């Protein structure tokens, strides 16, 4: 806890659950409002929706660059310093972020000029990237709140920002304002987060001038976060690169159709990688790694098996019911998203496994090797986009991200297999056999019962076998109390 005047923090089980609940509630509010808002834009105008989605992809890259992996060293140091030193750390991080912010915004302007984007699309891109940038600055204050156990304040700020920004977005879109004005919703969210976060910061810290030694600590903090930053930045880049290639080849409508399918698939991947793996499994692995290496290995293997077992029915449903899902959510002009979703669903199991093995590599000290894998993946991704998108257009964009994720997942898997020995191919035998058996049942049932009843029966049978027989082969689903 930084500073003697800070509130005491309970480390009990209930406290941990309540903190997680606060953050999940804030993310749920933003997730629901953003999903409804983007669907609303998609129904109003596909071109405008495509512009916003194009800009959101750029904003995600900018946000990751400005964050620069600073969260990891900042949280580690905040937990063990006094109030005066915590203020120095926060100022140090903000100085680095402000420099990166200026560089990113300059880069966005150069990118818009080099890509010969229209004035309207350039404005939308700049405004939304500016909103993401301001949100990245606000995250510095949230890091301190998390260390102090005040996730309730962070949740309130984020919920307030989400409601205010999306209310503006709905109103501006509803009254027919252009995409430039609509795009201000992201900037409203960022400014709200920054101002409210800074207000709380001022209550806990003195308002004196920058402390001596702050500038000296900028260099050390920058170096401490460099590897993590590059890993995160490269990951975001190869996940978003095809958006920019698709815009050049297929126009904004193509971006809109691709985004319609990708947003559904990516939401599931994020749920597993951020909430489950990032917030639960990664901290647990970090604790176990130096205490009980065998137990940590068992935890990795069990999670790999169950993540694959749970990913397969998700792939099955999204694949077989893609027509129903897309037609229910989007207008008829988004029909291309139906076949694209059938391609993109295969990124779900690849993302599950890659994120798990990436966290294992971080915990085991193989961060530089993981960075090398990210570099390889990014280079291959650019090659695939350069060759496949001009030739195959939307299909090429889908294949580029699938092959990239397959490559990186294979690299992280084989590292953990060869160097750590935690996982084997045989560990996935039961999930794959169960998946093949269930798919065979579906093929037999479909001509008799039609599509939807066959899908429902197959999924029910799959889960009945998974939770009934599965524990005998892959053990029970891993829990912290095991």
Descriptive keywords:
18 helices, disordered N terminus, 482 residues, mainly alpha, globular
Give an overview of the whole structure:
The protein has 482 residues and is mainly alpha-helical. Helix content is 84%, strand content 0%. It is built from 18 helices and no strands. Helix 1 (13-44) packs parallel to helix 6 (151-174) and helix 4 (83-114) packs across helix 9. Mean pLDDT is 82; it is low at 1-16.
β-strand number: 0
Main sheet: strands, sense, barrel = none
Whole-number radius of gyration? 23 Å
**End-to-end distance, in Å?**
30 Å
Count the DSSP helices.
18
Percent of residues in helices: over 70%
Q: What share of the residues does DSSP label as strand, in percent?
A: under 5%
Could you list the spans in which at least 5 consecutive residues all have pLDDT below 50? 1-16
Reading the helices and strands in chain order gives: HHHHHHHHHHHHHHHHHH
Structural class: mainly alpha
User: Shape, please?
Assistant: globular
Give the overall pLDDT as a whole number. 82
List the helices and strands and how they pair.
Layout: H1 13-44, H2 46-67, H3 71-78, H4 83-114, H5 119-147, H6 151-174, H7 179-182, H8 184-204, H9 214-288, H10 293-320, H11 322-329, H12 336-344, H13 347-363, H14 367-392, H15 394-420, H16 429-449, H17 451-468, H18 470-474
Helix pairs in contact: 1-2, 1-6, 2-4, 2-5, 2-9, 3-5, 3-9, 4-5, 4-9, 5-8, 6-8, 9-12, 9-13, 9-14, 9-15, 10-13, 10-16, 10-17, 11-12, 13-15, 14-15, 16-17
């Amino acid at each position: 806890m930084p500073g003697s005047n800070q509130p005491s923090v309970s480390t009990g089980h209930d406290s941990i659950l309540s903190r997680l609940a606060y953050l999940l509630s804030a993310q749920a509010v933003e997730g629901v409002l953003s999903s409804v808002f983007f669907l609303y834009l998609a129904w109003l105008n596909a071109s405008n929706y495509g512009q916003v989605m194009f800009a959101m992809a750029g904003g995600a890259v900018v946000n990751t660059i400005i964050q620069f992996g600073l969260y990891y060293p900042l949280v580690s140091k905040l937990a063990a310093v006094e109030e005066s030193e915590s203020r120095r750390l926060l100022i140090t991080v903000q100085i680095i972020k402000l420099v990166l912010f200026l560089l990113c915004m300059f880069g966005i302007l150069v990118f818009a000029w080099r890509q010969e984007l229209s004035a309207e699309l350039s404005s939308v891109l700049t405004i939304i990237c500016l909103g993401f940038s301001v949100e990245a600055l606000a995250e510095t204050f949230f890091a301190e709140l998390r260390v102090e156990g005040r996730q309730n304040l962070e949740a309130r700020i984020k919920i307030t920002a989400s409601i205010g920004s999306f209310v503006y977005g709905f109103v501006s879109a509803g009254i027919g304002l252009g995409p430039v004005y609509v795009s201000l919703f992201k900037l409203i969210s960022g400014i709200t987060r920054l101002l409210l976060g800074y207000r709380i910061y001022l209550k806990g810290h003195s308002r004196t001038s920058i402390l001596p030694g702050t500038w000296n600590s900028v260099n050390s903090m920058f170096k401490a976060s460099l590897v993590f930053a590059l890993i995160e930045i490269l990951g975001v880049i190869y996940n978003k690169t095809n958006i920019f290639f698709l815009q050049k080849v297929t126009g904004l409508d193509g971006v809109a159709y691709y985004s319609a399918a990708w947003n559904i698939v990516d939401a599931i991947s994020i749920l597993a990688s951020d909430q489950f793996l990032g917030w639960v499994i990664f901290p647990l692995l970090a604790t176990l790694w130096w205490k009980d290496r065998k137990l940590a290995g068992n935890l990795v293997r069990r999670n790999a098996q169950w993540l694959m077992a749970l990913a397969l029915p998700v792939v099955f449903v999204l694949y077989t019911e893609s027509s129903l899902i897309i037609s229910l959510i989007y207008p008829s002009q988004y029909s291309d998203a139906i076949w694209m979703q059938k391609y993109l669903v295969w990124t779900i199991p690849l993302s599950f496994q890659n994120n798990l093995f990436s966290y294992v590599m971080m915990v085991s000290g193989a961060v530089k090797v993981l960075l090398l894998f990210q570099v390889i993946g990014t280079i291959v991704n650019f090659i695939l986009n350069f060759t496949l998108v001009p030739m195959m257009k939307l299909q090429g964009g889908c294949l580029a991200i699938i092959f990239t994720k397959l490559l990186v997942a294979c690299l992280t898997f084989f590292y953990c297999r060869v160097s750590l020995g935690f996982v084997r191919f045989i560990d996935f035998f039961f999930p794959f056999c169960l998946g093949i058996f269930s798919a065979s049942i579906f093929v037999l049932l479909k001509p008799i019962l039609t599509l939807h009843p066959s899908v429902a029966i197959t999924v029910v049978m799959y889960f009945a076998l998974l939770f009934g027989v599965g524990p005998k082969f892959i053990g029970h689903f891993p829990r912290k109390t095991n």
